[in-house]
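Re: your question about Class II fructose-bisphosphate aldolase

S., sorry for the slow reply, the queue was backed up all week. Below is exactly what I fed in.
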Amino acid sequence: MGLVSGLEVIDECVSRGLVAGAFNTTNIETTMGIVQAVENTGVPTFIQVAPTNAVLSGYEYIYDMVSRRLASVGVPVALHLDHGRTLDDVSESLAAGFTSIMMDASGYEYDKNVSLSQKARQLTPARYALEVELGSIGGKEDDQGPEREATTDPAQVAAFVEATGAELLAVSVGNVHGYAPDVRIDEELLRQVQQASAVPLVIHGGSGLPAEQLARLNEFGVVKVNVASDLRNAMIRTFGEAYAANPNETSLIRVSRQAVTAITDVVEARIRTLNPKLS
Ligand SMILES: [Zn+2]
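Result:
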C-alpha cells in the first residue's frame, strides 16, 4: 500500500469507528517499532515528526525511511508534519513527500492564527489533511514550552474551522505535552468543543493521560491522538539499562533491536487503549 494521505487515514478511522494514534519518529528504531505495532493491530495510523525533531535528519531522510518501510505494509499510514510553526516548515515537508500537515499558529492571537492557517491551507493540497490548533496546549515538547497556554474557547470553534478550511482541529482541554502529574481532560469542555466543530478533533499529549480517558475519546469526536514521550522514553530507557548492566556493552545492533521491541510494545499498547473494541 505504501504511504497514504492523512485524509485516507481519517476517513478509514471514522468509517470503522477507530481512533488513530499519531506517533513521533526521529530515527530508524522508532520507525521500525511503530510500523511493527501498526501491522500487529491493523489500525490506520499517523507517523509524524516535528521541526524540532527533524534537525538531525531533515524531512527527506524521514520520508525515505518511513515510505520504504511502509511499501510492504497493508494498513493505511500517513506521514504527518507535527507542529509546523512556519510556512517554510509546511512547504519543506510537503516537498519531501509528507502527506499530512499541521500548522500550529496557536501561539499567536486569533486573527493571526487564522491567517497563517489559511496560508498553510493554500500550500497543502486538498487531498492531504490539514490540522490546525485553537487554544494553546501546555507542557513541554522537546524542551520548548508554548509561548502561551490557553484552553480552547468553544465559542470560537465553528468560525475557526470554517475560516481555516482544515480537516482536523487540535484542542487544548486539559491535555498537556509530556509527562505531568494528574493530567486529565475536561470532558465537559471537550463535549462543548465537539458540538461546535464540523471536523474531527485531535488530542495532543497522549502519553500523560489516564487510560480510562483515552479509551473514551472516540465518543467525543476525537480521531487522532498524539503520543511522543512514551516512545522516546522507551528508546532512551533501553539504552540506559543496557549501559547500566554493562558499561562495556558494544553490541549496538543488539541494543537497537531491543529498543525496537520496546517501542513496538509501547505503541501497540497505546493503539489498543485508544481502541478498546479491538480486543
Ligand atoms: Zn503536540
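The CA atoms of residues 130 and 179 lie 26 Å apart. The chain has one domain: 6-278.

Happy to talk it through on Thursday.
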